[in-house]
Amino acid sequence: MKKELQMRYFAKSLAGGVLLAATLASTTVLAAGTHPTTGEALADDQTFTYSMLDEHSSIDPQIVEDVSGSELVRDLFEGLMNQDADGNLVPGVATGFTTNEAKDVYTFTLRKDARWSDGKRVTAGDFVYAWRRLADPATASPYSWFADIMSLEGVGDVMSGDADPSTLGVSAIDNHTLEVRLTASLPYFALMTTHASTFPSPQWAIEEHGDDWTKVGNIVSNGAYVLTEHIPNERSVRERNTAYWDNDATILDKVVALIINDENTDLTRYLAGELDKGTVPSGQYLRLKAEYPNQATSFPRLCTYYYSFNVSESGQEALKDIRVRQALSYAVDRSVITDKILQAGQTQAFTFTPGATAGFDVPEVDFGVMTQAERNAKAKELLADAGYGADNPLSIDLLYNTSESHKKIAIAISQMWKETLGVTATLANIEWKTFLQVRGKQDFDVARGGWCGDYNEASTFLDLLTTKSGYNDGKYSNAEVDALMAEAKTLSDTKANYTRVEEILATEMPVIPIYHYAGVFMLKENLKGWPYGNVEQNWYSRNLYKIAD
Amino acid sequence: MLNYVIKRVGIAIPTMLILIILSFLLMHAAPGGPFTSDRPLPAQVLANIEAKYGLDQPLWRQMINYVWGVVTQFDFGPSFKYKDRTVNEIIAQGFPITLKYGFLSFIFAIGVGIPLGAIAAIRQNTWIDYLAVGVSIGAQVLPNFVMAPLLVIVFTLWLGWLPGGGWGGGSWEYLIMPVIALSTSYMASIARITRSSMLEVLNTNYIRTAKAKGLPTKTILLRHALKPSLLPVISYLGPAFVGLITGSVVIDIYFSTGGMGYFFVNSAMNRDYSVMMGITILVGFLTIMFSLVIDLLYAWVDPKIRY
Amino acid sequence: MIVANKKKIHQMSDNLSESEFVQGRSLWADARRRFMGNKAATVSLYILVLIVLFSFIGPWFAVWTNEEIDWGAMGSAATQGMPSFATGHFFGTDDLGRDIYSRVIQGTQISLMIGVIGAAIAVVVGTLYGSISGYVGGRTDQIMMRIVDILMAIPFMFVLILMLVVFGRSIGMLFVGIGLLSWLDMSRIVRGQTLSLKNKEFIEAAQATGVSDFKIITRHIVPNLLGVVAVYATLLVPGMILAESFISFLGLGVQEPNTSWGALISEGAGTIRYDTEWQLLFPLAFFVVSLFCFYFIGDGLRDALDPKDR
Fold first, then answer.
1. Partners for A (CB, 8 Å, 3+ pairs)?
2. Residue A229 shares a structural domain with residue A314
3. Which residue among A235, A507, B24, C119 is buried most deeply as judged by most CB within 10 Å?
4. What is the percent of chain C with per-residue pLDDT over 90, rounded to a whole number?
5. What is the mean pLDDT of residues C31-48?
């Protein structure tokens, strides 16, 4: 994982965030049946039921790696700091922190009333244990790299097994004071403690139950909820943790996560009233929006859907010709993809970075301002210039991973190429793991890609097309892009650099940007408090509530 | 008889070994591994994980370790995907679910299929017969992945009678749709087989004799005709059993029942080697045992057969 | 998945082997007469022939090809993609605006091909294996049949899923995979019949005159197995088609823009709620009717060829 990339994430988010370090949200006693701040009448049944596409990988904070598992972990456990509805930093177990001039030593003050679900106090030692556990090779955490980008003292040697985990740069000064020593200056370090892998874990429970400690009955947690039922691949239930320090402010009593593997079934069950939050199957948003205007929800996400050209040695010669790449990109009618296939608030992409990204101005790239007819004409011209046509037809393989919407998009684009340019695209629908392997080995002509920003800043996208990036599947390499991106990391005003990079990309077209994602789901009208403003979509059930109908 | 059983069990052992080796090799030959992801892990992290799961060892050693663990401790290892659980736990949790709705489907298919076929045969060439034959061929060729969503639309969305999925501890309202979707085509096959074999039996000399002797129809049918008519049905139960297990994949996907079927497909896709192996071994074992039971049942029904 | 009335086949093969083989020709003529007398079977045969013809002649009438997109209907299939003669979409369009008529035709070709080739693989492998095992006999027979026993206990649908994952999805893999699923039963039936044929006088005569074993198997044994093989093959075809539809449902079937009944039905079933019933109904109708026909023809053939009822 790219250390630098991750580090910028925190720097940038911090810049936009408001730090509420020392203020402790006062616990309000719940007025009977009304919301303490908004005064809305609350529903009697405070159960929130939502669906997940797949079973979570784990609910062990140091092991969890998937999004849906992290959602559970954020409810079951609480770290030093939390995020609010807009992604800003707010206190969690820690009431605040201090740091030195160099920003490489942090001291967190832990609240004294924080308790585990079995009544034990949450102490600084629990964090020390958890962080050592994260880095310990014996834990084999897939997220141990996170300890690495946290720059904890001695983390490299601990991870490689050369040093004992106790040498890690984290220690408990006393039960309620945690000291962290870093090898680099990280002004945004506190933001990293909102990540699930930094959450505390109960040493006594883990030692008593071993790998079974996360099972219902064994699990001890310090978050607003406790796990009360888990049937793998069917459901998991978490209920109010009465030992949680801010339990009085928690409104939802029970959160049920149902696993529904089929998106159409998901919607059916949502419409039958079994779910409070459900999936919108691809292509169904408009219809649902018309029928349920207050339930179908769409908001822009910081993600880009694109096709990569393989420009490495193994790639087809034709695709190394800029004109061919441009022609293929121009011939894609993006409005068809967004307005006819997806229909859910996605936006056409002519740049790699989504326009919604903070501090990024979408540059006016040539092909972005043309009409589709102009683009098509230009595309034909470019391809003819490159020497491909009826007498020398171009045929390419188009690789995508198995999914209904990837399939639809690939079919549509291959038809656009065929009708506009006479280019034959052979579709290869490949299941996920094979796809990753094939794409990673540059064994393709054109391959689907999708990238979601790790943080709200353009470099999370543009770094991907630098020579050294591990995610640069097409092996595009341009010295100027590399230099511009390297320079941007030292600049306070990065706009000019990013604009220039996007212009280069629009000319050289190493990837075809297709669309920018939208977050879409169905949410019952009486469920309130959803953090639409949180770019990472980190939601906490204790901030949600149901109002009376 | 005992000799026969011993011989059959003796064959089971090499069968299981072949199955284990075949699926082990196939699985490991599949591109990508359990920890391949679109954001590749750093080398050190990957090395730590592979060391933990023993994937850093040569393939033959992994296979020997695996077989050894299975044979000596009945330990199928940890899941690579669902890191909180072992394969034994996944099977212990999912298998009873599959078993419950599978068993009910089996009972339902037999319980409805045999009478339906028998009635059609007795009332041959009446509207009852035509209806039964038409319905059963139709039901036989309607795939369960068409049936399942149709049932959900009708009973959940339109009528609102049944929950659209889930397990609910296996209470009846959660079971109805999975059982119908899974059993219908087997019920239909059983009905067809029963009908045709019953017709054959009814035309045999000894039934004619019984009729001529003036025995009551009921006695003839129940005492003399039914049992021999069931022989072909019994031999069909083997394939039906395998079909039910395969069909459970569809049921688990559409009804989110949490059974083994989805785990299998999912584990093959995720390269969750241990889960995939565990389920394949379980299914293989069940198939072998079930076919043995069927053969013994066959001998019991047909006194002519001696092992 | 493979649903065939095995017991009946076994019975029939017993009956066949008891009957007289010298007058082969009259057996077939007789069978044809009896088959034609079976109304359900003959009607089914005609329907099936029509479906096959349709899959070849149908494209002449198609306005759209199976991969062309009607951009006007795309994304609004429920309102713009209805079956209509005006738009040239006789069976309507799918979500993407592709013509269901052309796709059904194309799917019909693929599904029938999978059914027939899959069955052919099963027949060829099963017949050779079974007849060799039965003819050679002794220890070889023992070992060969034990192998069949072992293979039969393997959950093949699971192995097939693995194979498609490992080797990538392709029609070739489907043929091989599905064909290999089902030669086992065939080989057992054939072996049983070969055993009884082996002691017949004409085989002994051939042996006495020094005809090679291979020739005996191919010239004398296999032709006499044709009856039972034909019946079994007819019943195998629908099983193959059903198996393919299951694989398509799992998303491991044929690659776009090609399609199959299974792929079309599974897509149609997924979107049934969104007012595009034609997406399910047309392919499903072809699928159900064809399978009906195969079953009736199989039953008819069995009755026609089974000498016991004569």
1. B, C
2. no
3. C119
4. 8
5. 85
B156 near A CB under 8 A: yes
* Pairwise CB contact (< 8 Å): C155 & B137: no
- What are the Cα distances from residue B226, in Å, to B115, B129, B232, B305? 10, 17, 11, 18
Q: What is the pLDDT of residues C70-80, one digit of tens each?
A: 888 887 777 87
Out of A57, A232, A272, name the one closest to residue B83 (CB). Answer: A57
Both A325 and A251 in one domain: the answer is no
Does A530 lie in the same domain as A441?
A: no
Query: Of A232, A272, A432, which is closest to B156 when you measure between CB atoms?
Result: A272
- A20: domain CATH number is 3.90.76.10
* Structural domain contains residue A276: no
Q: pLDDT tens digits, residue range B112-138? A: 999 988 888 888 778 888 888 888 878
Say whether both A369 and A336 belong to one domain: yes
Are residues A434 and B156, on separate chains, in Cβ contact within 8 Å? no
* Ramachandran angles phi, psi of A83, nearest 5°: -110, 150
Chain A residues lying within 8 Å of C257, measured CB to CB? 411, 414, 427
Of B149, B269, B287, nearest to C155 by CB-CB distance is B287
Amino acid at A120: K
Tokens of A9: 């994430």
Q: Tell me what pLDDT residue A332 has.
A: 94
Neighboring chain A residues of C270 at a CB cutoff of 8 Å: 262, 264, 404
Residue C173 has pLDDT above 70, yes or no: yes
Which DSSP string do the residues of B214-231 spell out, in sequence order?
A: T--HHHIIIIIIHHHHHH
DSSP E strand boundaries for A337-409: 347-348, 395-401
One of 3.50.50.60, 3.20.20.380, 1.10.3720.10, 2.30.30.240 is the CATH number of C51-67+100-304, namely 1.10.3720.10
Nearest chain A residue to B29 by CA distance is A434
Neighbours of C257 (CB within 10 A): 17
The answer to whether the beta carbons of residues C78 and C276 sit under 8 Å apart is yes
Q: Do B262 and A140 touch (CB under 8 A)?
A: no
CB C228 within 8 A of CB C77: no
> What's the whole-model pTM score?
0.82
pLDDT at A152 over 70: yes
| pLDDT, tens only, C157-168 | 777 777 777 777
Task: Say if residue A201 is in the same domain as residue A245.
Answer: yes
Residues of A in contact with C71 (CB under 8 A): 336, 340
Question: Whole-angstrom Cα distance, residue B114 to residue B110?
Answer: 6
Span B35-42, mean pLDDT? Answer: 80
Any domain includes A283: no
ipTM: 0.81
Chains that touch B (3 or more CB pairs under 8 A): A, C
pLDDT tens, residue by residue, B188-219: 888 888 888 888 788 777 778 887 887 787 77
Tally the domains of chain A: 2
- Judged by a CB distance cut-off of 8 A, whether residue C159 touches chain B is yes
Q: Are residues A88 and A194 in the same domain?
A: yes
CA distance A10 to A210: 33
Report pLDDT for B304: 63
Domain that holds residue A224: 16-258+524-546
> Exposure of C191 by Cβ count < 10 A (0-12 exposed, 13-18 middle, 19+ buried)?
buried
Confidence of residue A348 (pLDDT cuts 50, 70, 90): very high
User: CB A407 to CB C252 under 8 A?
Assistant: no
More confident residue, C46 or C310: C46
Place of tokens 């669309």: A515
User: Which residues of chain B make contact with C150, given a CB cutoff of 8 A?
Assistant: 11, 14-15, 18
| Consecutive H or E run containing B69 | helix B59-73
A424: CATH: 3.10.105.10
Across all residues in chain C, what is the average pLDDT?
A: 80
Is residue A480 in some structural domain?
yes
What pLDDT is attached to residue B307?
54
The answer to whether residue A55 is domain-embedded is: yes
* A135 lies in the same domain as A228: yes
DSSP-assigned letter for residue A104: -
